[in-house]
Amino acid sequence: MNNRLSNHQLWQLTLSYSRELLREPGVLFWGIVFPILMSLGLGIAFTQKTDVVRKVAVIDASVDSTSIQHFLLTEAQANPEVAADSFRYSYTIPDKQMGNTTFLFRETDWKEAMVLLKRGQINVILTEQNGKPEYHFDPRNPDAQLTYIKLSGMLNGKVVNTPQDNGEIKPLTLAGTRYIDFLVPGLIAMNAMMSCMWGISYGIIDRRSKKLLRRMVATPMKKTNFLIAFITVRFVMNFIESALLVLVTWLVFGITIQGSIPGLLAIFMAGNLAFAGIAIFVSSHTANTEVGNGLINLVVMPMMVLSGIFFSYHNFPDWSIPVIQKLPLTMLADGIRGIFNEGLGMTDIALPFVILSAIGVFFFSLGLRFFKWH
Amino acid sequence: MENMHTPVIEVKQVHKSFKTVHAVQGLNLTIGKGEFVALLGPNGAGKTTLVEMIEGIRHPDKGEIRIMGKTWKHHEDELRHLIGLSLQETRFTDKLRVYETLRLFASFFGLGKERVEEIIELVALEEKRKAFVGNLSGGQRQRLALGISLLNKPKVLLLDEPTTGLDPNARREIWAILRKLKEQAETSMILTTHYMEEAEQLCDYIIIVDHGKVLREGTLEQLLKGEEGEKVIEFSLKDGPETLPPTNGKIGEMQWNGMQRSGKVTVQDMNTQLPEFMEYLQQNRLHLQDMECRRTTLDDLFTTLTGRHLHE
């Protein structure tokens, strides 16, 4: 490399941050390996339809000959290897398309059943009154509802089996509709936020607390070069992390980018810019790493919860949705998701692109105004 | 202080206060080319504040600071090229190597590999050039910090307690580098320290400060030739009493610490006054445990001026 470039402060600053980053094994693990593992784990957990197990507690079934006991003894299978005070009886409803449903029954008393319910091990308690089964469950829990519907159908002998492949159910296995398709764009957005906020904010605060910042600005170093180098290294790192995540999930799950690639790059850049700006702002004043910790969490936590990274934010109350949609992380995640799964193009993401960039520039200049170098 | 040329550093009536502390109260300072000046004082004397104002890191509330005739307000860029400094505590990036750290700082001055090599040799870190900064010893870190401050061949070098916390060997290594620099006579230096030995060894001119004010200043000889005696007898006694009987006045001023059973006599003429002192002990049946005759030091002077030691 020619000498003038290699002696240039911007190059040396960029080089030293990159070295620092790459020499920290934790950075590589949390930045690259962890998101990939998370996507693999969640992707496999939610994508492959395995048998569903529904556990039910049965109260006093052994007292006299009831219809429930009759069912357990004749229809269900008793597993002699399982202790009597555990889920001993099982009954499976076979279903090729939606996956088998296996009911596990456990005979117990009320006290124990309540404990099991509180621990989330069961969600329906079954009793019998005057020869009729009674179902005790939280009516607002959709999972418990489903257990009830299937279980009552089964005990009434009506809907024991789902119609076998009668053409009524058309499985959607198109790319872009699975959980993994929802998850990966969210992870990319989250990664950009986390990496900017922790990498840039914490990096700056740490340097300030070590008096390194003060030492550096006591030289003719240009302050803008310092920040540009910091941000550039993060951008490149985020890009590599995201590219690897996409590559691995493409290989494993076959996820695809249906929309515009330049559009994807644009919204990704804008998102990084927004979070880099916020990061500079957050780190503009404090020299205390614990205060910094708190400030970063203050920014990161609400967005992690609200912005629909792992589950759709449409489950939040209606009035809150317009607010949630204006959060930078939501804008970035929705933009990336739209391009991945809905085939959006440049023009579709123009608005979030402009808003995210503006957020970045706004907080960057605000942060710079208050920035404490000494 | 006399200067052959225009002064390199001029500090005039500088004041600086923080919320509750008057850190610097009307200090004056003039330093010429190639001069090494020590700011000697205990912790909290205002040394660091003064140096940071000269470094342009803090701004004085009142007064004026000029470096080679230039002010921070109007010539910041030029001054940043002229000065070299080492802060009291800087932790350079642990995961960078010595060579890389120097290369980074050299780039801020537009300097390249050649200068980095010279510095590595100057501060004797050849064997550590590839070591991570995080793995250096305290002395090596300070040599690195000193090397960084010398990268731009500064006209003005400002070192804030460069040897605090180092063992005597490491301290001497730093001194050797600074002496080499002094021989070249191109750099003016201000060094803050609370080690009087450091001030004596390295500096032409010593300024004793406390509570933001100059207590005394001059060359080492000037400082030690005052109303203060030139020699000191330090002694301790076996079974020494709480208070000592009065002397006949011929010995010189005597200080006695009944708790520690040790005392100090300042004498003008060792030849006549030492026998007088021995006779005084004999007459009062006092038995020496230990005795030492030595020159007065800056610490003695400081104790006389403030009633405290430099290290307190």
Automatic annotation (TrEMBL), chain A:
PROSITE patterns: ABC_TM2. It holds the Pfam family ABC2_membrane_3. This is ABC transporter permease. It comes from the Bacteria. One of its GO terms (molecular function) is ABC-type transporter activity. The keyword Transmembrane helix applies. The chain crosses the membrane at residues 27-46, 182-205, 226-253, 259-282, 294-313, 349-371. One of its GO terms (cellular component) is membrane. Keywords: Membrane, Transmembrane, Transmembrane helix. Residues 144-374 form the ABC transmembrane type-2 domain. It is a multi-pass membrane protein. It is found in: Membrane.
Automatic annotation (TrEMBL), chain B:
It holds the Pfam family ABC_tran. The keyword ATP-binding applies. GO terms for cellular component: plasma membrane. Signal peptide: none annotated. Residues 9-236 form the ABC transporter domain. Keywords: ATP-binding, Cell membrane, Membrane, Nodulation, Nucleotide-binding, Translocase, Transport. Its main location: membrane. One of its GO terms (molecular function) is ATP binding. InterPro entries: AAA+_ATPase, ABC_transporter-like_ATP-bd, ABC_transporter-like_CS, ABC_transporter_ATP-binding, P-loop_NTPase. PROSITE patterns: ABC_TRANSPORTER_1, ABC_TRANSPORTER_2. It is found in: Cell membrane. Coiled coil: none annotated. Belongs to the ABC transporter superfamily. This is ABC transporter ATP-binding protein. It comes from Prolixibacter denitrificans. The lineage of its organism: Bacteria, Pseudomonadati, Bacteroidota, Bacteroidia, Marinilabiliales.
